[in-house]
Amino acid sequence: MGRIYNFSAGPAMLPVEVLKEAADEMLDYRGTGMSVMEMSHRSKAYEVIIKEAEKDLRELMNIPDNYKVLFLQGGASLQFAMIPMNLMKNKVSDHIITGQWAKKAYQEAKIYGTANVIASSEDKTFSYIPDCSDLPISENADYVYICENNTIYGTKFKKLPNTKGKLLVSDVSSCFLSEPVDVTKYGIIYGGVQKNIGPAGVVIVIIREDLITEDTLPGTPTMMKYKTHEKEGSMYNTPPAYGIYICGKVFKWIKNKGGLEAMKAHNEKKAAILYDFLDQSKMFRGTVVKEDRSLMNVPFVTGNEELDAKFIKESKAAGFENLKGHRTVGGMRASIYNAMPIEGVEALVAFMKKFEAENL
Ligand code: PMP
């Protein structure tokens, strides 16, 4: 079939079943005589697609009725601005800086108000999650912001921070639907979909309904008010229709696999294969403290840049794509999202063992 193991941090692998189904429906979506790409978003057929996508996501994540699901555009990065524009009533946000994406969100929030860094792991190249049990939360903070899984550094919050009663806003772009979550713990939980769910551009925002108000910062564009999209069921303007259709298929794929508990078990099994190998290897080592390791993004190094480069080159030739670490970190990174099969991780570890034997 020509498919390879793609370890990209995103856009990333999607389930083959989903891609095949989409391919089968490309020329004639269920008797409409057109593809979903060519279809009016106001059509009956599309209405079913978006409604079903929301229903399936609600079921998967057990989203309570007082939370709205918005399918928006602009990727996760547009949320860095939309969140302060909509939530900053006191113009204060508190931020935990655990990597580049958390930092970008913080820098954007600073445009709109006082953004405070209340914890950071920058001192050790973001290789751990700071202790968040007793943070100096600002008295008038509108929200506390985290990036729950740090795509570049491979860390994950295993326990949510104690926000001392303040709203928690979380970017889950790189751990979306990888394990069960308790939505009620968040004011907003959102993510770009291009890692675990679908094509880039779509961002899913799950937001407690009382946070959706007309009371946004002065000058907030209509398109950047949650209220605009909530009122119109994510159809204020043309939504990223084809992307949402693929997301809907992935939701069904996850449901068929047994939901988020099953995803978690599958992801833990995969990650353990790689981490167990790294922990005993004489050549490779993981770069993150054990207790904060991500199930999705696994950065590792040999400790020798030349050897890293050799590994990346040879792994590519052997059919393992996108193992190069982020340009700011170097080394390697294997992103093993939901759609990466166990066989992909097993094959990677077999390759690493061979490389170690040949180069040690
Ligand atoms: N947050 C996280 C955790 C990410 O990994 C990324 C992208 N890799 C982003 C935000 C930015 O997403 P986008 O490119 O969709 O704006």
From TrEMBL:
What keywords would UniProt list here?
Answer: Amino-acid biosynthesis, Aminotransferase, Cytoplasm, Pyridoxal phosphate, Serine biosynthesis, Transferase
Subunit composition?
Homodimer.
- Organism listed in the record: Ruminiclostridium papyrosolvens DSM 2782
The root-end lineage is: Bacteria, Bacillati, Bacillota, Clostridia, Eubacteriales
Query: Boundaries of each Aminotransferase class V domain copy?
Result: 4-348
Offer a single GO CC term for the protein.
cytoplasm
What's the cofactor?
A: pyridoxal 5'-phosphate
Say which family it is in.
Belongs to the class-V pyridoxal-phosphate-dependent aminotransferase family. SerC subfamily.
Report the protein name in the record. Phosphoserine aminotransferase
> Which parts of the sequence bind pyridoxal 5'-phosphate?
76-77, 101, 151, 171, 194, 237-238
Which enzyme class, named as a word? transferase
Reactions mediated catalytically: O-phospho-L-serine + 2-oxoglutarate = 3-phosphooxypyruvate + L-glutamate; 4-(phosphooxy)-L-threonine + 2-oxoglutarate = (R)-3-hydroxy-2-oxo-4-phosphooxybutanoate + L-glutamate
Positions of post-translational N6-(pyridoxal phosphate)lysine modification:
195
Q: Where is this protein primarily located?
A: cytoplasm
